[in-house]
Amino acid sequence: MGARHIKTAALTANTTTNQKVSDIVKGVIEDVKVNGDKAVRSYSEKFDKWSPESFKLSDSQIQDIISKVSAQTIADIKEAQKNIRTFAEAQRASIKDFEVEIQPGVFLGQRNNPINRAGAYIPGGRYPLLASAHMTILTAKVAGVKHVIACTPPIAGQIPHATIAAAHFAGADEIFLLGGTQAIAAMALGTETMAKVDFIAGPGNAFVAEAKKQLFGEIGIDLLAGPTEVLIIADERADSFTVATDLLSQAEHGPDSPAVLITTSEEVGRETIRYAGEILKKMPTAELAGTSWRDYGEVIVVDSLDEAYELANVYSSEHVQILTQRPREALEKMRNYGALFLGEKTCVSYGDKCIGTNHVLPTRKAGRYTGGLWVGKYLKTQTYQEVVDEKASGEIGRLCGRCSRAENFEGHARSGDLRAHKYLKDEHGWIDEVKIKASL
Fold it and tell me: Where is the active site (predicted)?
């Protein structure tokens, strides 16, 4: 029978940037480039109604802000950060420098050097996403980044105390209470009071994503984030209430977050739809979650799990949750995703908040060609080479000469010729000609 929808999305996910957003972002970037702090303050006043004496928080301000956070929240931040640090340290340990002697006297090597300065953007907007502080700052610090600047916006004119605490405990070297395009531009370009960074990581709204896109090249970025996505693969034994709960947990991120169920059981699919309707009736974030579920939610019935996995690979969702009898089968069957969540005892929200893996993940089918934020994103894998044997240098020089002339690169060829001449006594007319003419 093939795949069949029993709930179809009312809208198609928009993957293009609104021209108005693009133009606004371009104008802000150009203004910050020319006018620095003055422009940053102007846009902060305009967009966030926020214009403190200094956007950078002093040590005493940070400590005062932390004192307003409950002891339980502080303890939870530290426990979540312990998990994230442990996983990041394991990632760093998996990345090795090496040197190999490919032939006698010829050494090739690889070093993984951390970026010097990084910016971490921690969104505010609808929610104080303090978990993004863990994901961006901690990961950078474990990678060895010397200096991390954290930017997070005020929320409705208020300081997000828990977010500031999370950024501090994650190891931020400087914390700025600044958001939006103006924060991205300030970090990327530098101003009188903010030093330019080399790389920016962290999710954000359409303006933040567009700013990162326009500034890519001036600085490196983690990825271009779109709306949060979740896809669940469920078999006939999956608990429909769990499926509905987990779909809506991600739909509440915003009004345009795709939530998709692919199941081998029509009964599970229809029960999930019924439960979702009931849950939304008293869900505090129903306005957002309900809009996403109505406009972008899908329920698809397939004939087999193999068909489910293949269809999920086409969707290439940010989060893929496996609610089947053999969830680890997905490790072999799935290729395109941001992160996998295996079994009913696991859920996407764990990854979002505290389990230890990173929640900055590819969206809009980018999982086809990249993974999410991890320690390696903050490292530059750089190579080096050294030839210490004269005969080896001469032999490689001969090879270089032939390879270069096959591409009509005469200058490259001559660098190889010179080594072959010096160490193997090869005759090359151009060498003698140049030396003779230069001596006259």
Answer: 318-319
Domain that holds residue 274: 227-372
173 and 143 Cβ atoms separated by less than 8 Å: no
Q: Which residues participate in catalysis according to the annotation?
A: 318-319
Q: Which amino acid is at 236?
A: E
pLDDT at 126: 79
Residue 110: what pLDDT?
A: 98
Task: With H, G, I as helix, E, B as strand and everything else as coil, classify residue 366.
Answer: helix
Residue 47 has pLDDT above 80, yes or no: yes
CA dist 183 and 127 (Å) reads: 18
C-alpha distances out from residue 414 to 345, 392, 394, 396, Å: 64, 17, 12, 12
Side by side, the strands of the sheet bearing 379-387 are 98-103, 106-114, 379-387
What radius of gyration, in Å, describes the C-alpha atoms of the chain?
Answer: 27
| 216 & 306 share domain | no
Higher pLDDT, 240 or 13: 240
Mark which of 180, 196, 222 sits at the end of a domain. Answer: 222
Asked if residue 308 has pLDDT above 80, the reply is yes
pTM, to two decimals? 0.93
Task: List for the chain the helix, strand, coil content (%; round to 5).
Answer: 50, 20, 35
pLDDT of residue 1: 67
pLDDT interval class at 8 (50, 70, 90): very high
Of 190, 206, 222, the residue at which a domain comes to its end is 222
Distance, CA of 271 to CA of 28 (rounded, Å): 48
Domain count within the chain: 3
Binding residues for Zn(2+), by number, are 250, 253, 352, 412
pLDDT band for position 220 (cuts 50, 70, 90):
very high
Backbone region of residue 297 per phi and psi (left: phi > 0; alpha: psi in -120 to 50; beta: other values): beta
Same-domain pairing of 217 and 231: no
172, 137 Cβ separation under 8 angstroms: yes
Assess whether 337 and 204 both reside in one domain.
no
3-state DSSP assignment of residue 190: coil
Residue 99 lies in a domain: no
Q: Are 201 and 298 contained in the same domain?
A: no
Inside any domain, residue 236? yes
DSSP annotation of 439? H
In terms of domains, do 161 and 257 share one? no
